Amino acid sequence: MNTKVSGRKAAHAARGNTLLVAFQDGLERLRKEMGLTRCAFAERLGIPRSSYFHLMTEAANPSLDYIELIAERAGVEPIAFLGKAGQNTRRLAVGAR
């Protein structure tokens, strides 16, 4: 069995999962802007509570399709989840896209 770790994977592990953390921070920022509990936010997104709580763990690995689904249901562009703290989350106009 080959246990060689690619340089990209090693560097990624050394820095931490920055995209995942940015996504999680953006998702929590949006939830707080909406004034919802985690359970209410999961319901609003149409996903099980357990799925939402899993998204907030280190083990989460959401696909781009899943991120797009969450963004669509939240009424934001997917890139909004990667914004910096303190930025307002840009909302989509109803019917936009």
Summarize the structure.
With 97 residues, the chain is an all-alpha fold.
For the biggest sheet, the summary is: none
Q: Helicity, in percent?
A: 40-55%
Rg of Cα set: 15 Å
| Uncertain ranges | 85-97
Category by helix and strand content: mainly alpha
Indicate the mean pLDDT. 80
How many strands? 0
Outline = globular
User: Number of helical runs?
Assistant: 5
Distance between the terminal alpha carbons, to the nearest Å?
Answer: 47 Å
Q: Into which percentage range does the β-strand content fall?
A: under 5%
What is the N-to-C order of secondary-structure elements (H for helix, E for strand)?
A: HHHHH
How would you characterize the overall build of this protein?
By secondary structure, the protein is mainly α. It is 54% helix and 0% strand. The chain contains five helices and no strands. α3 crosses α4. 13% of the residues are buried. The C terminus is likely disordered.
Features:
mainly alpha; 97 residues; 5 helices; 54% helix
Helix-strand blueprint:
Blueprint: H1 7-15, H2 18-34, H3 38-45, H4 49-55, H5 64-74
